Automatic annotation (TrEMBL):
UniProt pathway annotation: Cell wall biogenesis; peptidoglycan biosynthesis
SUPFAM superfamilies cross-referenced by the UniProt entry: FAD-binding/transporter-associated domain-like, Uridine diphospho-N-Acetylenolpyruvylglucosamine reductase, MurB, C-terminal domain
InterPro entries tied to this protein: FAD-bd_PCMH, FAD-bd_PCMH-like_sf, FAD-bd_PCMH_sub1, FAD-bd_PCMH_sub2, MurB, MurB_C, MurB_C_sf, Oxid_FAD_bind_N
Cofactor(s) this protein requires: FAD
Reactions accelerated catalytically: UDP-N-acetyl-alpha-D-muramate + NADP(+) = UDP-N-acetyl-3-O-(1-carboxyvinyl)-alpha-D-glucosamine + NADPH + H(+)
Name assigned to this protein: UDP-N-acetylenolpyruvoylglucosamine reductase
Presence of the UniProt keyword Cell wall biogenesis/degradation in the record: yes
Enzyme class: oxidoreductase
Domain annotation FAD-binding PCMH-type: ranges: 17-178
Pfam families named among the record's database cross-references: FAD_binding_4, MurB_C
Subcellular location(s) per record: Cytoplasm
Keywords, alphabetical: Cell cycle, Cell division, Cell shape, Cell wall biogenesis/degradation, Cytoplasm, FAD, Flavoprotein, NADP, Oxidoreductase, Peptidoglycan synthesis
NCBIfam families hit by this protein: murB, PRK13905.1
Amino acid sequence: MKILENHEMKLHSNMKVGGTAKKFITVEDKNELKEIFEKNSNIFLIGNGTNTLIDEGNLDMTFVSLKEFDNVRELERGLVEVEAGLDFNKLIAYMNKNNYSGLENLAGIPGSVGGLVYMNGGAYGSEIFDCISEIEIFDENHEIRRIKKEDLDFSYRRTEIQSKKWIIISAVFKFKDGFDLQKVVEIQAMRESKQPLDLPNLGSTFKNPAGDFSARLISEAGLKGTVIGGAQISEKHPNFIVNRGTATFKDISEILKLVKKTISEKYGINLEEEIIIIKNSDK
């Protein structure tokens, strides 16, 4: 393992906001996890930071990264084991190269494979669990084990992995033949035209409530374009909050509060964040 002390966490968030971590540990072998969890406290597993908002100041936390877990192994035709640290769009490229189909609708989503599995990430009617056969985890008892998909509890943007605070080591995907390159090209073009990819952001900020869309509610409530400090509700996509260059954790938190309060008062709907928020325990 590699251990860095007093490490700047804004380097690990797409929002470019974050304080100084007590430790930042890069895992090199999955068997190191047991030692890491036995010798450290207040641990947070950080993926690519594409949906993680990190508080500022001195963070009395140990951040653990599996970014070096990025191997892909074909078990048999259509059955592929992927380590959690692999960038998700490298998996899409692998599918293209090997003519595999099943996750094209998710093309362009930033993040690691483990991060998407953790929250059952998805887009355009598809979810990553559509193609998962089993996962390998480090569990709450500090044991490494494999769990079949049918033995897992998961739903829209939620898995029991979150509530039980398991760490995903790898996932086995079951793919069909026939990669749809045209669909991927269309979806990536759609993302570029509709999402503020030119500014630091954390992707979709709020989960969609049942039968509706957070972006529509935020727009109809007149909040599109709202600015607080250096943070703004995107004009391009109102379910995105962007950093205009000087945003602080407080700026972004105030926007989150404003949106939730406004939507609750106007529509009686309690929006729930899709992003992960890490607050400083000292506050």
